[in-house]
Amino acid sequence: MLLNLRETRGPLYRRVYLALKTKIRAGGLGPAARVPSTRALARDLGVSRNTVMLAYEQLAAEGYLVSRHRGATSVARVGPPRPALAPARPAAERPAAISAYARRLTARLDLAPSHPPGPRPTLRYDFRYGRPAVDEFPREIWRRLLAAHARRASADALGYGSPAGHAPLRVALSEYLGRARGVVSDPDRIVVVNGTQQALDLLARVLLDPGDGAVVEEPHYPGRRSPSRRWAPACCACRWTPTASIRPGSPAGRSAPAWPT
User: Fold this and answer.
1) Is 256 helix (H, G, I), strand (E, B) or coil?
2) Cβ-based neighbour number of residue 119 at 10 Å
3) How far apart are CA 161 and CA 165, in angstroms?
4) What is the per-residue pLDDT across 44-61, written as a single tens digit (0 to 9) for each?
5) Helix 49-61 to helix 12-25 angle, to the nearest 10 degrees?
6) What is 183-228 written as a DSSP string?
7) CA distance 217 to 239
8) What was the pLDDT predicted at 8?
9) Would the pTM of this model clear 0.85, i.e. be above it?
10) Architecture of domain 12-75 in CATH?
11) Which residue ranges make up each domain of the chain?
């Protein structure tokens, strides 16, 4: 533990005492926190052990420290009463200077503090989105693979990579898409994102100009509209309802589904 002994004058033991007392009153050492032994603190400060013992004895006499017989010394759980401070005059809050984009964003988004998700209820079929079945995640396999690759990681792997994502990962994704989905893709045209929201935000930045309109299918994921509305305020949700109608050329008495456009 390092203490600043130059802020006060007087005998050395008193300077150690005042520095510890200030640290305890400021919350740097909380209730029941163990303090170094007299020998260890004396070694850290470069003073004699007797100097630290005198400081500890004074703090114990004032109720700041407690020591048990042949036990460690710690901060008292209930410290001495602190002098009442005069209530500070509340300073007038000045709104932070933000950009027009930030003003539009804060006006449309709910910035209330989020609450951590509660425990997943026991459901036979859980169709909620945004909450993966983490209890099904292969943690042990993931841990082994992560440790193995971390041991073999080069120095370059710990630096800044491509903004599009880790190159070997994009190559693996391209191979998987071709093998499992039949999609011909170029690794250089694959962008790895942190989640759906970042992907939607990037798409809105690339495809929309300020003042453009955007249409979102209804029902939809609520977070889907936020990126679009940041760049295109005229974003509306449309409900698509299949209807039956008789189209020219269809057999009599048979209807073909039609969707409004």
Assistant:
1) strand
2) 5
3) 7
4) 888 898 988 898 888 888
5) 50
6) ----GGG----SSHHHHHHHHHHHH--TT-EEEEEES--GGGHHHH
7) 6
8) 79
9) no
10) Orthogonal Bundle (1.10)
11) 12-75, 162-192, 202-242
